[in-house]
Batch of 2 targets.
Target 1
Amino acid sequence: MPDALLDTAGLVTGYGQLPVLQDIDLRIVPGELVGLVGPNGAGKTTLLQAIVGLLPAWHGSVSFAGQDVTRWDARRRARAGISLVAEGRQLFAGLTVRENLTLAATATGNAVEENLERVLALFPELERLLGRVSGTMSGGEQQMCAIGRGLMCRPSLLMIDELSLGLAPVVVDRLVHALSQIHQTMGITIIFVEQDVDLAMDTADRVVLLGMGRVVMDAPAPAVRARRTELEHTFLGLPIDGQTVDVIAEA
Amino acid sequence: MDALLELRDVRRSFGGVRAVDGIDGRLDEGRILGLIGPNGSGKTTLLGLISATMPVSAGEIVLDGRSMRGWSPSDAARAGICRAYQIPQAMPELTTLENAMLGAMFGRHRLPTADARRVAADALERVGLAGRISTPVGSLSLAERKSLELARVMAARPRLALVDEAMAGLAAAQIRAAEDILRGLRQDGVTVIVVEHVPGVVAAIADEVCVLDQGRVLRWASPAEIMSDPAVIATYLGRRARPDA
Amino acid sequence: MSQAIVNGILTGGLYAAFGIGLSLIYGVTRVISAVHGAFIVIGAYLAQSAWMAFGLDPFLMVPVLLVIGFGLGYGVQRLFIDKVMRRRVVMTITLTFGLDLIAVTGILLVFGADLRTISVPYASVGFDVLGARIPLVRLGIFAVAVILALGLELILRRTQIGTTIRAVSQNRTAAELLGIDTGHAFGMAHGLAAAVACGAGALLALIQPLQPFMGLSVLLIAFAVVVLAGFGSIAPVLISGMILGLTENLAGLYIGTEYQRLAIFVAYLAVASILPAGLFGRRFYAH
């Protein structure tokens, strides 16, 4: 069994007094491409925020690359190689694309030129947009810039919240293609949240289904696809018989 | 039986965004309607239109045979429409009893204070807040505040109760209790529209369910039909959330 | 009249230098800093002391004050404001007013309550243009103030730390996700702002007698500049400074010198109530 890149054990967290995540055990090994799905309010964004250090763990722990990072703040985790492309892209809207990208490299102590080349090879579209103020670009361009900015930090784990939300199908296809390149060519482990469940199952190797703050299913994409009824019931908020938590068989 | 509420091609735009984009439908007296749909599908906007907190851009809403065109929220309240809010709007300095009394004093019946107190105390008892009558609302839990919202509606003795996410964020046992309160309202002869994000929550209590998607009615049918409808399922699995090319 | 216009414009440059730091602090940290006036007054007193003790020209003192001001601003941000930044606005205002009181008390203890002045040997040197007398000192103050303001702008636009400060001001969470030390960036922003304020204090000392309680009126001028200019780039700040300078001097000419300061605030209130977004459509107190 390869060493885990990311390992959450009994993770509980939430906002204010309100718990959102209950007892999350998630173990991800290097090289996985994981789709995180679930109905609205299931805790997908909350989980990413807890992994990246924006939300403190109430109970349980988060380990990354063999180190216990539970008490680390977001900045330290970013430097250790966890990168989050947050919901809504969160670009520095008044800064140019180039400024957005270079800042990410320098802030994490990475070389600008080499990483910029790598990002532009992945998204050649960004080359002519380097001087553009990022807030003025289309949603698809912003998403490319946001993913590019995430890569400028040289992460070993890249997390993307809402890959396709609000984007045209042709742009989504483009991003999915880029995602597989990041995964295969760059060898980066990826967790992405995707509201289109079928897209998530088509793209990811492994699918994690959250419902009401718990892991409802965790299995290879084909296995999840085969359990359509439970999937649908989770999204409609209907009761599921018995406990159906699967733990992925490490191959 | 005549419809209590009729929606005739109801529309509402914000700038260029058509939040409610041509909704037709009718709701008979004494029914519970579950209004569901993904984020941004227009549920809360439609509720705002029915409670007259915002005017329709086009179309017409008819209550009891009377057009609501040009109504203010207080016109709607006097006609017997009462709304329970998603985030309880209770006034934190007032006690639980005083909050519930507001419903009776300024609703359809405009009861004098003594009667309002009696009706409000009665309603609080029915929602299980009898022991919290003199507690300032600020120190109630989320579940208690949601119950108080329902008690306020109950005390107003409305014809049509609009309930926005009365159950979101509650634990299973609390949801059960809220369901009982809503059934009690129906027993009083109140027609209820329940807005929830999660379809499963309304399935247990609604007589009929209306699914909104992008400001339109995707399906309006019985709960059982809704929960097995492929188009509804697809919407909740996110397929339709991609903008149409 | 032409004399009042010349004086107004020349003073306006200094007012812009008062305001630009306040604008930067608010833009980056969302804190309305009541201690900003104290940085200016401290600069003024230090310049006056250096002149008295060593005969050092206040203009030459400016670079030294930039360093001192930077240290003060960085320290105040990291030691105090950092702790309350995410709290309610009343907390940050109370805190910065408290710091201002401490500063004023400190000045009283160290320098006493007597009026202090600087009279440089070239005080009366000047030249005439179109019937107006342009004193060399005033021209120098104007030039240095504008250079300070432009320098700050240049740092924000062109340097690594400037880009970082702008990024943090636009999206703090995203910045933290990239590994940016936001606390340091806030400190740098406040440091730069205080540096300009302290430097401008030396210029103030050249034209106005110093007393420990002058910080409040200086702060109000800075505040008026920022509300007029809205928050954003430098040109509106410079223009607003000059508008206030002109208002002050023309009021002095036509209404009476005792109403000069009042005129500034009447102008400021008029703009604030008629054009809440400022003269340039950039609302100061909104995102």
Note: Residues 18 and 39 of chain C are 10 Å apart (CA to CA).
Target 2
Amino acid sequence: MASPPTKQMILQLYHATLKTSKTFSSYNFRNYFVDRTKDVFRDIQKENDPARLTTMYGDAVKELTVLRRSAILNQIYGGWKLAVEETPKKPEDILQRGDT
Amino acid sequence: MQATTPMDPRVVDAMMPYMVDQYGNPHSRTHAYGWEAEMAVEEARKNIADLIGADSKDIIFTSGATESNNMIIKGVARFHKDKKKHIITTQTEHKCVLDSCRKLSEEGFDITYLPVQQNGVVDLDVLEAAIRPDTALVSIMAVNNETGVVQPIKEIGAVVRKHRGVYFHTDAAQAAGKIPVDVNEMNIDLMSLSAHKIYGPKGVGAAYVRRRPRVRLEPIISGGGQERGLRSGTLATPLFVGMGEAARIAKLEMQRDYAHVTRLSQLLLTKINSQVENVVRNGHAEGYPGCVNLSFSYVEGESLLMALKDIALSSGSACTSASLEPSYVLRALGAAEDMAHSSLRFGMGRFTTEAEVDFVCEHIIKTVTRLREMSPLWEMVQEGIDINSIDWSQAQH
């Protein structure tokens, strides 16, 4: 059986996953994967059972490869800016159809 | 979310190989391309089966929940037509169930449309009383697509199981992957599933058809005998793989997703209720939290839609569809015509953010306040006039 990942390995993977998550162009996916990465690694951090930890780490490694590909695809096709992303969040500041 | 969902990027990634390189037909048994595709389809089938606690051989791929519903309702009824002539469903079912039943009634079947209680839930005693010796099928949806009402499927399954020869079908397009569903624990014989409600691709769904004890149905589509002869036609490998991956992720993420939409729907309700009065929530408050259906009294429904439609479009946010027709589902719940007219359905899902909910709330509050300021009805209500006491026909002259 593979030996459990070291603290440093986990930290590296966390940073790589977080960085990849932030490169999604689409607002919703970007936010989701950033939040989820934090949750997943918080769980990994809490895990004490070495066997469980190895599986969780393995899953996270696999997921990073998926995320990397998905993020590239999303940069190519995705990311039209939503009104909710604009800085002035007040409704009256947002142009509606018919406004000039 | 219940209108539709965006495809999860992880689902797209799983589908890509089958659109780029692996174009084999899963039914070609003579070469490796075919085997690869077959393996992928079977893995997808297993993931879907696992989501609902079924055996993977019981899963039939279709083009979506509408096809599954048609196939099951018409198929079971027509197979047993010599001995059985009766089908039970509810008034709040999805259109494709109601319309399949209407078609069957033209063919001479007797259909009972059960009423629902004011909270949208079926009364089990009423259901049991409606079952007859010649009943072939009971079809009741698990989660309502307009109100989020969750039916007591386990209890309904137990009632139907008591009657030998009556099959229980549930349209679980809105339930599977969002709340726990188990075909054995709930005594479900047939089930319809959809991929695009669980962050999978559009144009694909599945039917669960129990093999032990065997449920027999007459196929609608004839041909090469694929999918146990129930749904002929070349399998759409990329779509099935996508649905399988969506099901796998849905099972893994169910708890997290549920907690997320619960938090969002509480945020939405508290925010709107704190600033707008006379808001009625349609359906059982204990329903699926990802679907919130609200009626805004004294606001003309169509104007509300017009004002909000642009916003939903421009923000691409969580606020989803509402039809101009007063909803038959809401009327079945006993909602007055005007309330059914001014209802809005909010769908929240895995990818909805708190900022979006805040954004939509601000717009709703602003729009409803503005429309009420313009409304003569609202003015009368403020002055303490009971709207229902007015005889409108005289005012026309």
Note: Residues 313-322 of chain B have pLDDT under 50 and may be disordered.
